[in-house]
Design a protein that fits this description.
Layout: H1 2-11, H2 14-21, H3 33-45, H4 50-66, H5 70-86, H6 93-109, H7 113-127, H8 141-151, H9 159-178, H10 189-204, H11 219-233, H12 239-252, H13 260-272, H14 278-291, H15 297-315, H16 321-339, H17 346-364, H18 368-381, H19 390-407, H20 415-418, H21 421-430, H22 436-450, H23 477-498, H24 504-521, H25 527-543, H26 549-570, H27 573-589, H28 619-628, H29 634-638, H30 656-666, H31 670-677, H32 681-685, H33 700-707, H34 712-731, H35 734-741, H36 745-776, H37 783-787
Length: 794
């Protein structure tokens, strides 16, 4: 019998004999290395036998597993690993791989955890091999399902090892399938719904801090690594396939409240995703927020907080319409929140604040020019003041808070760019809103955009004492031009705002805005307009009967506070001395005319004396202070203080005569003066003014003197002539003005008659000469008809 067996074994194929020889007599001894080398050499020299070797190894392993001889099954798996590593460059590898995968599947199906771990490690080794020839029929459905189930293992023994093996197996499937378009599409929903939740399950079961020790990898750390790899490999069309099961997992396991894990997960996604696709994550999360509009406020707040944490990462890749699209979606959620609730609860308020923070974070990562576009876009969505319902007022307040959030992120350099007309005009309208919180938010927006030197906190309270921490620099030319153009509009809106409410916080906010305006824009060219503004505040307090007593006192307090401030900021000592005299006098006679602002409730039972005209700011005294300081006071002396609810442009309230005289006063060069005083008829028509005679000599010295700066006497003479024109037009009789300024019709008519007579005589002479020439050359064509015939057609 032994001889017979030896004879039969000699008749078996060689590859089977080689395979049989790698198994030891005692399974505990492990793989026979020398015989394994022979089998490897045979496989390399006879690649056509490789598929048969694989099939035979699979059959032997299947029998061993069925008979519970796990050591022999492990040896067979080890042999297939070695053959796969040695022969991966063979063209016939595909047929061997089929047997290899069947072997892995057989081991994974068994209940022995060691076999599962070994099979997974073998699959990972296979996944790292780059195959030259693709396989069109290979499928990985079983492996995805099996590895996903291993990720959820709750076995008492080897739980972490099985979970690690499952995560590694999923990583191997991802690497094997993502890089090859010819194999099964792993991005299909049926696969992603198994892979993504398995990774998230392991991530949430451990500490969220990353593990730096590579030798001791934990399931949460490895799952996070695989999720990063999965998201990083996703293209634009596949990223939503990852996000949908991710959001579903967070919903089903109620992981939004608290949202620590959700924030951590989405940060991983945003950091790992290709930058150009980050906008898709924000858009998907917003759509999920839309779908959860009926969820509890806490859930929606957590979603909004997650959005605010990741939206900044997407901001760098969002430009143009995509940026405004995100802003529009956030504003839509805010409007929905306001419209669906009659009363704002604390939870709903937190949700709105989270959305506003998300909007601010998004805008913060955009350049300043885009921030202006975002603010303008938000401003255009604010309901008009004509809508006075409670819901509209709430929506106004919420949207303006969003605008404020963006404004605080903007770094103002030029007021012309920070306040374009299309943005400034609606903002000024909102400054006159009847709702106090709305006006206060508008003031905060102005403060955020006006405050270039961080003076907002320094000027937060009304005071007549020096501000030691005040920071200031002279305004630029463009800022001065902006003040001339729009400063009056802003100051008019401030006066209207101050008169609308006696609340101390609202008045303090208006004062803060006015003080910042003065600090940022005050100079010799604008100080007169600011003084008219201060006089306007005082006049409103003195003449408006509808205001309460405490309200009037507070307006007087604001006026004196701004006067002291502009005196210190502009450096006009005469003006500061005058303001200090008023402060000292009020301190002795009427302390209720000095800061701090009075609380209406506390002063309700106290009688306050308002008939104190000698303690008021005097317009003429202000003009004298400016003149004594060597400054022009024409605008202050001739202009009227700002009035309440004034509809026209405050800068144009004075007559055209005053504006002309103002402009002439500001001109210094004689070249400018000659525009007004030259040889023109307009000067002759001015009443009481004779035309200036030119100097009789026209030599070099005379021309040099004419181009030089005018002397003080010439300036005084010019000023007197200008005032004479003003007085004549103001005080003269209308008939006298008509007589003085009527055109000289007789003179013009005489000159026209002389001109027409000379033309008639010249025409007669020309006609007689033409007839004589025609008689001399009747047969010749006139030269003018030949060269220029069209010039004589009528």
């Amino acid at each position: 019998m032994p001889g017979c067996c030896g004879c039969c074994s000699a008749l078996r194929p060689r590859y089977k004999r080689l395979v049989d020889n790698i198994f030891p007599v005692n399974p505990e001894d492990g793989l026979v290395k020398s015989n394994m080398e022979k089998l490897t050499f045979y496989s390399l020299s006879s690649p056509d036998k490789l598929d048969r070797i694989g099939e035979y190894l699979y059959q032997k392993a299947t029998k061993d597993i069925n008979r519970k001889r796990y050591k022999l099954a492990e040896i067979a798996m080890e042999a297939m690993d070695l053959l796969l590593q040695a022969c991966h460059a063979q063209t016939t590898l595909n047929l061997f791989v089929e047997s290899f995968l069947r072997m892995v599947q057989k081991l994974l199906e068994d209940s022995n955890p060691n076999l599962k771990i070994m099979a997974t490690n073998s699959f990972v080794k296979f996944a790292n091999i780059n195959e030259d020839t693709p396989s069109y029929h290979r499928r990985y459905d079983f492996f995805i399902s099996k590895f996903s189930s291993m990720c959820h293992s709750d076995a008492a023994s080897l739980r972490d090892s099985l979970r690690l093996a499952g995560i590694k197996g999923l990583q191997g499937v991802i690497r094997k399938t993502v890089s090859d378009d010819l194999v099964e599409n792993i991005w299909e929903a049926q696969h992603m719904e198994k892979i993504v939740p398995s990774l998230l399950f392991n991530m949430q079961s451990g500490d969220l801090t990353p593990v730096e020790d590579a030798t001791n990898v934990t399931p949460p750390a490895l799952a996070e690594e695989v999720l990063r790899e999965l998201v990083g490999r996703a293209s634009f069309g596949h990223i939503r396939s990852v996000l949908k099961p991710l959001l579903t997992h967070l919903d089903r396991h109620e992981l939004w409240v608290p949202n620590t894990f959700a924030i951590h997960t989405f940060r991983i996604v945003m950091i790992s995703i290709q930058p150009q696709y980050s906008y898709t994550v924000v858009e998907t999360l917003m759509q999920h927020l839309d779908n959860n509009f009926k969820s509890s406020p806490k859930t929606r707040t957590s979603l909004a907080v997650v959005l605010s944490k990741i939206i900044a990462i997407a901001a760098g890749e969002s430009v143009g319409p995509s940026a405004l699209d995100i802003i529009n979606n956030l504003l839509t959620h805010l409007r929905t929140s306001v419209s669906t609730t009659s009363e704002i609860t604390p939870e709903e308020s937190q949700y709105q604040e989270a959305l506003i923070n998300a909007l601010g974070e998004f805008a913060n990562h955009h350049p300043d020019y885009q921030k202006i576009e975002i603010m303008l876009f938000i401003m255009n969505t604010v309901p008009d003041l004509s809508k006075k319902s409670k819901g509209d007022q709430m929506l106004q307040n919420i949207l303006l808070k969003s605008l404020l959030k963006v404004g605080t992120q903007y770094s103002t350099v030029s007021f012309e760019k920070a306040f374009p007309a299309s943005f400034l005009q609606p903002l000024l309208k909102m400054a006159r809103a009847p709702h106090d919180p709305t006006r206060m938010v508008v003031m905060q927006i102005f403060q955020a955009l006006l405050d270039r030197h961080q003076n907002e906190k320094v000027l937060s309270s009304v005071s007549v004492k020096p501000y030691p921490a005040l920071s200031q620099e002279p305004p630029s030319r463009s800022d001065i031009i902006f003040t001339h153009k729009y400063g009056a509009n802003i100051m008019q809106a401030l006066i209207d705002s101050m008169a609308l409410s006696d609340r101390v916080d609202a008045l303090s906010s208006s004062y803060n805005t006015a003080a910042l305006l003065i600090v940022e824009m005050s100079c010799n060219e604008t100080v007169q307009e600011f003084l008219l503004f201060i006089l306007g505040i005082q006049q409103v307090a003195s003449t408006t009967e509808t205001l309460g007593t405490v309200h009037k006192c507070n307006l007087h307090i604001i006026a004196i506070g701004l006067l002291v401030l502009i005196s210190r900021v502009s450096g006009i000592n005469n003006l500061l001395d005058y303001a200090q005299k008023i402060v000292d006098a009020r301190r002795e006679e009427a302390s209720h005319y000095l800061p701090p602002l009075l609380e209406p409730k506390k002063m309700a039972n106290k009688s306050l004396n308002l008939s104190l005209p000698h303690l008021a700011i005097d317009k003429l005294a202000l003009g004298e202070c400016l003149q004594n300081a060597g400054m022009d006071a024409q605008r202050l002396n001739t202009g009227a203080p700002y009035a309440l609810n004034q509809t026209d442009h405050p800068g144009h309230r004075h007559s055209w005569v005053e504006s002309v005289s103002n402009q002439l006063t500001q001109r210094n060069s004689s070249a400018d003066l000659t525009v007004y005083n030259g040889d023109v008829d307009s000067v002759s028509s001015s009443p009481g003014v004779c035309k200036k005679l030119l100097a009789p000599e026209f030599n070099f010295d005379a021309m040099k003197r004419a181009l030089a700066e005018p002397t003080e006497a010439a300036k005084r003479e010019l000023r007197e002539r200008q005032m004479q024109i003003v007085r004549t037009f103001r005080e003269g009789e209308f008939d006298d003005l008509m007589r003085r300024t009527e055109p000289k019709h007789d003179l013009i008519q005489n000159r026209l008659n002389e001109l027409f007579n000379s033309l008639a005589v010249e025409r007669q002479i020309t006609q007689s000469d033409t007839k004589a020439a025609q008689l001399q050359a009747s047969n010749e064509k006139p030269i003018y008809e030949t060269n220029f015939p069209e010039l004589f057609y009528y």
